[in-house]
Structure formats: C-alpha cells, structure tokens
Amino acid sequence: MKKILFLCTGNYYRSRFSEYFFNNLASKKGVKWQADSRGLNVNPESGNVGAISSEVIKTLESLGIQIDSVSLREPMQVKQIDLENANQVIAVDRVAHRPLMESKFPQWVDKIEYWLVKDLHENPDEPPLLQLQNNIHLLLEELD
Questions:
Q1: What span, in angstroms and rounded, lies between the C-alpha atoms of 103 and 40?
Q2: Residue 35 to residues 77, 82, 88, 102, 124: CA-CA distances in angstroms?
C-alpha cells in the first residue's frame, strides 16, 4: 500500500478533509493508496475547537462518509519521519505552505506538490472543500 500525505496549516480542516475523502474514494475505486494528514504549524491556541472542523464532519456526512471515533484524533504536527514515510506529499496551499516548508523542512521544498486551495476565510467564493474534492478526483485518476 502506497502512502500519500496531505499537509495544511493546522491539520484541522483542509488536510483532514483530504485524508478522509481520499481514503473513502480510493477504497471505492480499488486504488492501493492510503492517505494521512499533518499540519505544518499546529497551534493549540489557534481557536480550533475539537479534533476536526465540524464543517468537515458535516460535509463528509453529506457525502455519505462516516468518521468513526477510532480514526478521530487531534491535529498532528508534521515530522521528518512523516515526510520520509510518504510516497507522495501534497501541501494544499502553495502561498501559505511553501514558506513553512522552506523554514521547517528546506530539503523537502521542491520534493512535494503544492495545490492552490485557500482556507475558508481567505476565499469564500470558492469553497475549499469543493476544490479539494475536485483535486482529489483528478489525483486518483493519475495514481496507479
């Protein structure tokens, strides 16, 4: 089983949605990849409440994807070992995440893929979870 790692800032909204959505879709399509997710700047004082955004849970449920309590965990900070253990790494927002990669993992900056999915409050006209769904559908067509 190959591993893909989704990165966002806090591992609370975009990367977590990507992890669950990807795993559900990959399982249905029989794609032998599994996703995980981490944050580049996990901060307990960020104002995020709970383990995962309630909007992510609502959106996943509306898509027929249930999150079991076993897989529900607190946001996690990315570590070197996470990057090393992944076959592919995607940071969901080039503008915000490339500088974080440069400061924390400079040797990885050009080894990962960057998408252009802004956080919810940064671009309300383009819902990030819908953008992520579209990107993940395209990604799954490319993976073997």
A1: 10
A2: 16, 12, 9, 23, 26
Integer Cα distance of 54 and 121 in angstroms? 15
Report pLDDT digits (tens) over 14-60.
999 999 999 999 999 999 999 999 999 998 777 776 789 999 999 99
89 burial type by CB count under 10 A (0-12 exposed, 13-18 middle, 19+ buried): buried
What is the SS3 assignment for 117? coil
Structure tokens at 131: 């953008």
Question: Tokens in use for 117?
Answer: 């999915």
Residue 139's SS3 state is helix
Sign of torsion over alpha carbons 14, 19, 64, 141? positive
